[in-house]
Amino acid sequence: MIAVSLIIEGHQGLNWARWQRIVAEVEHLGFAGLFRSDHFTDPQPENDPPTVDALEAMISLAYLADHTQRIHFGTMVAPVSFRDPINLARQAAAIDGLSGGRMVLGVGAGWQIREHTIFGYELGDVATRMARYEEALKIITHLLRSDEPLSFEGKFYTLRNARLLPRPQKPMPILIGGNGMKRLLALAARYGDIWNGMFLSPEEFQERSTMLDGLLQKEGRERSEVRRSILHTLIPCRDQADLERKIKRNPGMQTLIAVLNGREPFTGTPDQLIQKIKVYEQAGVEELFFQWLDMDDIEGIRAFARDVLPYVS
Fold this sequence. Notes:
The chain has 313 residues and is α/β, with parallel strands linked by helices. The chain has a single domain, classed as Alpha-Beta Barrel (TIM Barrel). The protein has helices spanning 16-29, 57-67, 85-99, 113-119, 126-145, 183-191, 202-218, 240-248, 251-259, 270-282, 298-307; strands at 3-8, 33-36, 72-75, 78-79, 103-108, 150-153, 158-162, 174-177, 194-198, 227-236, 266-268, 287-291. An eight-stranded parallel barrel has the order 1-2-3-5-8-9-10-12, surrounded by seven helices. The protein has a two-stranded antiparallel sheet with strand order 6-7. Strand 4 (78-79), helix 3 (85-99) and strand 5 form a beta-alpha-beta unit. The longest helix is centred in the middle third of the chain and has 20 residues, at 126-145. The protein is globular, with a radius of gyration of 19 Å. It starts with a strand and ends in a 6-residue tail after the last helix.
């Protein structure tokens, strides 16, 4: 059976009251996990100041760790363009320990121009982002996985006999997300424990998963060492008109639909959603991460848990 987790886009109006309510519900409804994006703002409008709440991701996960017992959780994903990898690893290890070993650390290169411009972080061109990302992954994976001190001299980071204490209770899964067939899949094969494809069709997912198999073989790793997952935007609806109404009244949905670049969100009635999820399971997906964009629609989360989850997970 496939695992189903929710992702909350925290930069689209998340505050403590909403987060506390969502955490309490997801813990008891049968979802596998609850994850957080890590952004200051939406990508548009590019030069305008932020106008909605954006609850800080790592602190919100510390709350989740202390107020749940069952679900796994983490970042989807934390950009190293504004997250120092040493402090990120240190925070993640502490939160993981608080939870009893349930955290997944999703790490990304950074991409959103608006938040970097507004808050003064250097994003850089794509080549710079990827080079910084690989250095950060080398550092994070060593600090979390190895008891040996790390000395590292890179273009972006320098460490001398660095070791994090206390040590993690067990290896923390590192999630690497993205669809890039060359660089990102290679990084997932080298450093990742979970690969997450984004908004892919089942056929596209299978194609990249097969490529990942080959890259893992080159790295001397087994296929089973990297869990396969996918991210989609979930909007349950009765019909096309209902879908259009939901998108129209929710600015966050409008933004995400624009980011999808013509790809359809994961929509439909409960029966249709069950069938779609089973197709992805057959394609080799082990966990589905669903963006839940209407943070106040608690009844919608309950309905999905009641009408869909028992038949797929």
